[in-house]
Protein 1
Amino acid sequence: MDKIVIEGGIPLKGEVVISGAKNAALPILAATILAPGVHELYSVPPLADIRTAGRLLGSLGIKFPQGPPGRSGTPGSSGQDAPLLVDSSGLEGFEAPYELVKTMRAAVLVLGPLVARQRRARVSLPGGCAIGARPINLHLKGLEAMGVKITLREGYVEADARRLNGADIYFDTITVTGTENLMMAAVLAKGTTVIKNAAMEPEVGDLARFLTAMGAQIEGIDTDVLTIHGVKELKPASYIIMADRIEAGTYMAAAAITKGEVTLLNAPMPHLTAIMGKFTEAGVRLSAEPGRITLQPGGALHGVDVRTLPYPGFPTDMQAQFMALMSLARGASVITETIFENRFMHVSELVRMGADITVSGNHAIVRGKKTLQGAPVMATDLRASASLVVAGLAAQGLTEIHRVYHLDRGYANLVEKFSGLGARIQRMPE
Ligand code: EPU
């Protein structure tokens, strides 16, 4: 296993290109199940989670080229690259095995498409994860409302969808992958499905636009009421996956904490309103034009309060990185996590680097310090690991980040991108 070693304290400088969004690419890859033929996908990011999705699709008879990241025809990093060609003509299975789902919860996204196309599915229940219990009860309740018979057996969800009808569905809690799963089931159902209190995350909209390109009929895209008129069949499509707003936010945090001057290219600006708003409130100097966001060293950073919320609120996936930034701000900041019950695993590691943070329930109180010190650290999930990279870039001395596989799941070419901005960062064997 590798570790990442960072010598902190260098202001980042230069330009960085934001890759395609992991959380848009994963449902879109699952959606290729819905129509036989060759789909052309651009901007699929080179990530471990994408390779896992490829293995899962491969086990279902779908051809997915696996190869070195960025090579022609394999997951690349910008819309200019050759497309990833996913050939779903040979779909034959209906199962997502435990071995794959346990390494990536998003594998559960094949449930909706399998139900729609194969009229049956056997998908391992994901179980809990480092950030919370994360049940999928709302995905299952929605499918049942559509007439699907759900049985839980030996740790698997078994879905029998001989009947698949449109239904009126209301989510008690806003769920991103739940909305995506039900939308993918509904596009081939008989009749109309209305999903109320649907997630409005831009990645849900990106999936809806891909489904529309395949011939699906969806109204209310990007709103919290989705109306889906089922069609008989879909055709393969060509699509450019949206840029990753969380990757963009993470580079913004790294630029701000090092007092650097960084321009993000291919940044999905309209989706960054809440994030940019908090950075500005904290004293970060930002300028933005379409596709391009520049951060410049400004005055002192000061503590601001943040509460995570479903989109368009401040995303839970940026909470840890923003907390790292706040640990070097002037004054205090209260960070409230409302989406996941256990998403403060980075706090104790940041404290080991000298941060002053106390947790009370779902609030973290951060009292800004003048400096952080490098330390060996590790984290239990993707965004927590990203927060340690952000902190390490500003800390005095060396920070060693272990369990790099978390970062590999969600950050394309992280070491290369930060090196390109002048950071002293290396990946090396443990
Ligand atoms: N929930 C339920 N029942 C359900 C589904 C969700 O109670 O059936 C609860 C969850 O336990 C949680 C809340 O609803 O408390 C929201 O969870 P949601 O279902 O929206 O999360 P998700 O779809 O599993 C996606 C992203 C996450 C991101 C969340 C929230 C993907 C593949 N994953 O997860 O991304 O944090 O939405 O925005 O899109 C990440 O990229 O690091 C990541 C964890």
Protein 2
Amino acid sequence: MKLFLDSANRKEIEKYLATGLVDGVTTNPSLLSAQGQNTKEVILDILRMVPGDVSIEVVEKAPDAVYTQAHQIAKLGDNAVVKIPFAFEYLPVIAKLVGDGVKLNITLVFNLLQALMVAKLGVTYISPFIGRLDDIGADGMVLIEDLVTLKDQYDFPVEILAASIRHVMHWERAALLGADVATVPPAIIEAACKHPLTESGIKKFDEDWKKLGKQNLLD
Ligand code: G3P
């Protein structure tokens, strides 16, 4: 399973890239807006820093403007993936961009048929938002499960990118269900690394080792 970092913060991205685990990055207008006014510089830096795919979302609204902006984003780097929110009026734009060879990540996907439509159009990634479905009392994991079934049933060459991951269980379940990618916020990766038994185990080994009073292990 690929791991993408859900962040537009360059310091965070640098920190997590160093773990060797990060295959790509997803940004969105909310994450970019939190980084201040110099959006283009932030985007270009992230594209340079990250060896894998970086999703950058269009902010234009009219279909023609979305099409133009998608090409502008795609030109920023070989690893630039254009994120477009699902909307009926964007379907022709999506079809055209796929035909132009632009890598797309269709975001804000909340049901199976939205996913089916864009999978048929040949997009690269589909982003179902797990946490936001849970927020309205639905079960986001069921959508991941259904998308994996759909993808396998029809052999769609799309990658299911589990997004809006709010806690460790979302990531764990997405992995077990066979999502291709999870885009995970830094705090969730940090939480996943922690276990009280790991911490108490390290403490105990340390205490026992110190009882021996030796400085070096291999002396
Ligand atoms: O990957 C999408 C993500 O950034 C949205 O997460 O927590 O705002 O629903 P959230």
Protein 3
Amino acid sequence: MKRIVTIQDISCVGKCSLTVALPIISAMGTEAAVIPTAVLSTHTAFKKFTFCDLTKEITPICEHWKNTGIGFDAIYTGYLGSFEQIELTEKLIADFKTENSLTLVDPAMADGGKLYAGFTVDFAKRMSLLCSKADIIVPNITEASFMLGVPYIEEGYDEEYIKDILKKLTDLGCKTAVLTGVSFEKDKIGVMSYNSESGKYFSYFRERIPESFHGTGDVFASTFLGALMRGRSVDDALKVATDFTVESIKATVGNAPDRKYGVNFEEVVPYLVSRMDK
Ligand code: PXL
């Protein structure tokens, strides 16, 4: 069985970061080791939340693993709360990346044209340096815009615009860039990717569900990695991740107290598992 390590916070309620990554990657048949960067009572979109920083644990955890000879088939980075955590994540990659392993960076820090609470434009620039060390990155259009220092365009862009953003993202240094939340037609939304080695673009769209929920970026990234670890190609893994995210949103519409509480991905885990068997 493959083993990945994911570094991000644990928000106790709100279905994002580790409470999404762990169940999804496990259900898909890969061991998920974790480095929890902080414990929060909820994610930061709630009005109030408790916060316990775990930055000082990161180095001792990594040292123990190195001394024990523990290795990983992939390193998956998510929400990181500080410049120091980005630096330690770069060290994690330098220490544990091997020829055969994959580094997936989800620069989770913004959506809908806005940075999440507590982040700055300088932080987004710093995150772009972490992206340069990845094999694959999976920003949404807001995150990509902040990292590249270009204005965020909500709608009305064309394929050339997205292709240009993707190319600029790979120019940061990663092999493949995936942009989520891409929409060229009002009733469709999906992903577009660019592989800088082959020069090939790929896109996959589904029907737009006119509601948005917190944590869907984490559902997408976790599923994408889960599918890659099960040997799927990048294009196929993007389809699996997009479909599972859509099915999770569908399971939530009309059944959620508030968009902050995330999506009911748990209800569609059987669909995901059956898709992995095919
Ligand atoms: O899913 C993104 C995320 C993860 N972790 C924390 C967050 C957010 C988004 O707001 O606040 C703590």
Protein 4
Amino acid sequence: MRILGIETSCDETAVCLIETQGSFGPGFSFSILGNTLYSQAALHAEYGGVFPNLAKREHARNLVPLLQSMLKDAGELEAADMIYHIDFETLLEREPELLQQLPPFLERHKKPAIDCIAVTHGPGLEPALWVGINFARALATAWDIPLVAVNHMEGHIVLSMMAGSGLTHFEFPVLSLLISGGHTELVLSETFGSYNIIGQTRDDAAGEAFDKVARLLGLGYPGGPEISRLASQARNERLTKSFILPRPMIHEDTLDFSFSGLKTAVRKIVEQGALTETTKQQLAREFEDAVADVLVGKTIRALEEYGAQTVLVSGGVSANTHIRLCLGEALAKTGGGTRLLAPPPEFATDNALMIALAGYFHALEGDSTDPSALVARGNLKLA
Ligand code: KG4
Ligand code: ZN
């Protein structure tokens, strides 16, 4: 099957075309025919976080050019004169920019060999999600192919289960640590597609904490990679600790998290006086250590409480080498032989491959959605 994945839940505009074979299991394989992504991060940098209306505008501006260049890479861009008896004005009435770009593009190109469209319908920023949904709807209607709605977090999970061009060999139950800009959750899956949220953040998400602390330290957006860079400089230079930050809720008898106190603790240090390059590195290191300690502590607690054959880490923050390393070490120490699954670092942050993959498994189960009934769900939960 050939699936087009579309992702616009936050500040990455992405489209990807994959070809897949087999069902969820050892016989599954996929290949990427085309994959394009435009990150708006630099545009949001001055706000220190994602500005929803800017994200919406940029998605609308870039989806058609990205689709075009992706189809070209996939060898699926063929000129043709097409006539559509479709009311694009109504379909795209909320998306003037797409209305201007998409119908002419469709009318000038042959329908590519695509069997199904998978699009993120939540969670995320609703104005941003809507652009992807309206785009997907118009394509599914014009090309007359099924549309599948994908939960963005399930996309992150599915991608962590892949290795090379197939599924990693692992056993259920799977305990997933989902750490992104908007989420910090521990989720238990007894089978593929079942999700039981057993712990979550009560305030800021892990990625949000990285972004806010980076802002306090005068670093760029997204903050995760910036903090991580300074922290590893501190480790390489063996800078001794000069700050101690709290490990919020680490000893409390709950699987929930809280990161806002950590950010407040950093703010207080910053307010005490100007930081030098060295003290910034030390503080970044201590912050990264504190986040890692809490994430690892809660994951091990969940493993002890619920048991799992496999631990999976996913979401943008899972790009963090130090956090991955600490998780791996802690799991090895338990001696239980639990496997750790993580996405390839270049696919840890948002992308459309994860949406295409998750969409495929739903398509196999016949989970297609009526295009006119599809809506953005900013707070969509895994269920
Ligand atoms: O999954 P993602 O791309 O978008 C959401 O679904 O939210 O995650 C983005 C988050 C941002 O907060 C970013 O700062 C964080 O992931 N991030 C990192 C790293 N790379 C990205 N956090 C820590 N270390 C990193 N290397
Ligand atoms: Zn994400």
